[in-house]
Design brief:
single chain, alpha+beta
Length: 129
């Protein structure tokens, strides 16, 4: 191969690589990771289940469809569901699961974080609230 043929081949390969990158960037269904410095952001992401995993790869939260209804679930370190929020035809559901003395729901006044309502009445509110 002559030097001229070699240079022509290299220029053609580099041009083809750039053209391929530009075309693949415009294909439908392409997903691009975005960082804070990126100017291009993804407008829509369609998935059946979105999982959040910890450094060890354990699922800690997921958002998906279960029995036809949207559901958001957060799990403990041992994989047990501890929080679930769902939307159903009959209304919404909020589930808090855990130890009996620590499971419940509390509604706080936003200004002074005063407890407005709690169930059960024996629910112990952490000192930070």
């Amino acid at each position: 191969m002559t030097r001229k043929q070699y240079i022509t081949l290299v220029v053609f390969a580099v041009t083809a690589a750039f053209a391929g990158g530009m075309v693949s960037n415009r294909l439908p269904g392409a997903v691009h990771a975005a960082t804070d410095n990126d100017t291009q952001k993804l407008d829509t992401l369609e998935v059946r289940v979105l999982k959040v995993v910890d450094r060890e790869g354990r699922t800690r939260a997921w958002l998906g469809i279960e029995e036809g209804d949207p559901l958001f679930v957060m799990e403990s370190n041992d994989g047990e569901p501890r929080f679930a929020l769902g939307a159903h035809d009959a209304g919404a559901s909020l589930s808090l699961m855990g130890d009996q003395k620590k499971t419940g729901i509390a509604i706080f006044e936003s200004a002074d974080k005063r407890v407005v309502w709690r169930a059960p009445e024996t629910l112990q509110i952490p000192s930070g609230k």
